Amino acid sequence: MADAELVVEAAGPVATVVIHNPARRNAMTPYMWRQLPPILDRLEADPAVRALVLTGAGDAFCAGADLGDLDELLAAGDGSIAVAAEERLASFAKPTIAAVRGACVGGGCQLAVACDLRIAAVDARFGVPPARLGLVYPAPTTRRLTRLIGPSAAKFLLFTAELIDAERALRIGLADEVVPATALDARVDEITTAIAERSPISVAAAKEIVDDRAGPARIAWWHRKVAESGEAREGIAAVRERRTPRFAWTPPD
Fold this sequence. Notes:
single chain, alpha/beta, 2-enoyl-CoA Hydratase, Chain A, domain 1, 3-stranded mixed beta sheet, 6-stranded mixed beta sheet
């Protein structure tokens, strides 16, 4: 294994992408930012994958980004490889969960916010440090953060660059649940197991609609697919027969 890379682990219907750069508390290097979109393309195309977990190796989620060449960073602006990776993660068609322990700062917070859900260990710490560095946080990233936690909370993080603990992250909506550090993996397993057992057509449609990526024509398409797939008949039959439903729909290529 390389010192700094993204590692993909698969367990049944759940794929886990591990941010692995332990020497720097899992800071994202340029190579790692470039790794992420093709990894996501492959996992999205795999019908066996029903959910994705993003986490960090060891006791940190991700302590930020390797800033690399400053002139290159300043010239890239919103066209940076970090923003491209974030946008690809946000558009991933299947449910995504950030399992957060320890530092979740800068580029790490950027990735966590791009996930659908964030489950945090009680020792998690969140922060957005560009104001401390004299940088402008990318506009797509800023808007995504603001949609998630609201303007006031976003401004607090952006203006002060302070770290906040997991309980405060939970109060402002940056975390969805906070659990003991020893229980994080088990809780994430519970959530992904539940998602994997649900109707993939229902989950996929819900994600598009919640993310405001489905117009009237697309919503009508989803309703047609429900009728054609037989998923609703299977789900209702399973409830009546008190058994686990056997959902088999897979998205078209």
